[in-house]
Amino acid sequence: MPPKKPISPEGSSEGSQGIYQLKVTLRDSDPPIWRRFEVSHDLTLRKLHNLLQVVMGWENEHLYDFYKGRERLSKSLMLFQAASRARSKFIYLYDMGDSWEHEIVVEKILKDREGKSHPVCLEGRRACPPEDCGGIYGYDEMLDALKDPKHPDREHWLEWIGDDFDAEAFDLDAVNRRLKRYKL
Fold first, then answer.
1. In the chain, where are the structural domains located?
2. Mean pLDDT for the stretch of residues 64-74
3. Which of 1, 71, 86, 98 is 20 to 30 A from residue 65's alpha carbon, by CA?
4. SS3 for the chain, per residue?
């Protein structure tokens, strides 16, 4: 007897199995900070959190939640249960103090391909903000201070983050090396 297809909360199993191509974007970042990556449909949201920490570059130092609309999603839900169709969206909130909100979009649901390992990051733009810098608005203020040699807070930020921080940097190979070491 063939295995049953998983059923989503919406009652549809159409397209819910396979590889999910996701795009995660840090809300209110301008220009956008985002990553595109592939994961298995049966990943729990708890494990997705751990992968988001890797692909975004966070350090897993804070609490998190997932939301669809106003409903908080259980971390034991599988990805296909949280988002069963392409173009489904939900929110990943990391660090309740700084409130880093990420929009996650299911761009595509692909057939599982033999020999291709998952998870894998496909592309992304811009560096992840450092932990505890005050949320997206604190991060913007930090970047403004770093750009202006006469800004009164520039030395504070340089001392805190170092002078080698590059807000435009994104190293795809480094992210994929970290993902290979990640144990699901």
1. 19-128+168-181
2. 97
3. 86
4. CCCCCCCCCCCCCCCCCCEEEEEEEECCCCCCCEEEEEEECCCEHHHHHHHHHHHHCCCCCCCEEEEECCEEECCCCEHHHHCCCCCCEEEEEECCCCCEEEEEEEEEEECCCCCCCCCEEEEEECCCCCCCCCHHHHHHHHHHHHHCCCCCCHHHHHHHHCCCCCCCCCCHHHHHHHHHHCCC
Token pair for residue 61? 């130092």
Report whether CATH 3.30.565.10 matches the domain 19-128+168-181: no
| Span 108-120, average pLDDT | 82
Q: Are 128 and 58 in contact (CB under 8 A)?
A: yes
Identify the sign of the CA torsion 124, 91, 116, 176: positive
pLDDT tens by residue, 128-146: 999 999 999 999 999 999 9
Residue 71 backbone class (left: φ over 0; alpha: ψ -120 to 50; beta: rest):
beta
Query: How far apart are the C-alpha atoms of 178 and 117, rounded to whole Å?
Result: 14
